[in-house]
Amino acid sequence: MDKSEDKQLGRRNFMKVAIAGIGGLIGAALGLPAIPYIMGPALQKESDDWIQLGSISKVELNIPTLFKKTIETQTGWINTEEEISAYVLTSNGQDYVVMSNVCTHLACRVRWIPEKDSFFCPCHNGVFAKDGTVVAGPPPRPLDRFESKVEDGVIFIKRG
Amino acid sequence: MLVKIGDWLDERFSWREVWEAVFMRKVPHVNWFYTLGSATLFVAIMQGVTGILLTLYYVPTPDHAYDSVVYITTQLPFGWLIRGLHHWGASATVVLTVLHLLRVFYFGAYKYPREATWITGVILLLVVIGFGFTGYLLPWDQKSFWATTVGTQIAGLAPFVGDWILRIARGGRDISAVTLARFFGTHVWILPATLAALIGIHLYLVIRIGITAVPKKDE
Question: Does B133 map to a domain?
Fold first, then answer.
């Protein structure tokens, strides 16, 4: 009697372990691939090609000048056109600074207001000086700068 | 610690009673054919999980459906696996549901007091076929387009109400963006809700009444 009961328990425990093992295996076989499947698009690297913004001849000394460039990008299965906007500033006609127009607070787009001599963000009243430093409002850091180069009077930037 | 949490929850939910009723219930000595119902439930859950994952990327409009499916299959990590499981799982669900039905039929398990279990099971078979029919259109390729053309055309042959059924199924005279959207909505909302409700009743009855023993020779 005791012996057979031991046997019963052994069988029951074996089944428990087998069910947990096989169940865990199936769960892992489906659950683990699901993670990269969900995260895939987030991990995709952006291209680091030079983007041609345009001729620097229109940039006047000490006035941030807006450049707009439409580039083709692929998001998921859709080929779309994306417009990149950047402000180019030079103080001596030799060295150029290219600033992003994305507010460092919460990513609204800033605009250069010539009358106020500053960048203004309409979302939360962030104000930046012409070199991008924060003058007022909530932005935690100056406007981001693009890596840039000038070749034959044409300015290029790198995203990223 | 785990035991303590279990006790705390049990005091409030009585989950051990439910666990006992579901998993520790007495069953007669049966054979492997009796696992077909569980197998069907398993693939149904798999279809649910992989289907939910597919909706993260799939877009049910004529200009995006096919491209989003290609994107899932070729661009996403393990997208081929998720879609493959859903694709083959669809056939497996139909096959297993039918085999389960045949087991119940040949073992006479549909008789009193299990008629309601049988009836919900037959409706579940229809729901599964509905899943297959609506899901087939979603990749929006040549095969799915013409299969749905033929399928809805067959429905249109029904006497008197045929044309009416065809127009409701297609959402108009022809297969269009409207058809794709309604097939998708049916596939991911109406049918899953129906399936979940019916499986709930079906399983409740299986557990409440218990399963049949293998019939003896003289029965």
Answer: yes
> In the predicted model, what is the mean pLDDT of residues B175-194?
97
User: For position B101, which CATH number holds?
Assistant: 1.20.810.10
B71 within some domain: yes
Within a domain: B143: yes
B residues 123-142 closer than 8 Å to A (CB): none
Q: With contacts defined as CB-CB under 8 Å, which chain A residues touch B79?
A: 37, 40
Decide if B68 and A76 are in contact by the 8 Å CB cutoff.
yes
Encoded tokens for B8: 């705390």
Percent of chain A with pLDDT over 90: 61
In chain B, how many domains are there? Answer: 1
Q: To which residue do tokens 């939360």 refer?
A: A124
Residue ranges of alpha helices (H) inside chain B are 2-13, 15-23, 36-55, 65-74, 79-106, 115-137, 142-155, 162-170, 177-185, 191-209
In a domain, B2, yes or no: no
As for the ipTM of the complex, it is: 0.88
Distance (Å, whole) CA A160 – CA A64? 21
Place of tokens 């430093």: A133
Report the run of H or E that residue A65 belongs to, with start and end.
strand A65-75
Measure the CA–CA gap between B138 and B152, rounded to whole angstroms.
15
Q: How far is residue B47's CA from residue B2's CA, in Å, rounded to a whole number?
A: 32
Q: Which range marks the domain in which residue B163 is found?
A: 33-209
Taking the CA of residue A11 and the nearest CA in chain B, the distance in Å comes to 15
Mean pLDDT taken over chain B = 96
| Three-point CA angle A52, A56, A57, nearest 5° | 140
**pLDDT above 50 (res A1):** no
Other CB atoms within a 10 A radius of the CB of residue B50 amount to 21
Q: Count other Cβ atoms within 10 Å, centred on residue B163.
A: 13
Name the residue in chain B with its Cα closest to that of A27: B46
| Residues in CB range of B80: below 8 A, 6 or more apart | B73, B74
With CA atoms as reference, the chain B residue closest to A12 would be B24
How many interchain CB pairs under 8 A, A with B? 38
Beta carbons of A40 and B49 less than 8 Å apart: no
Residue A2 has pLDDT above 60, yes or no: no
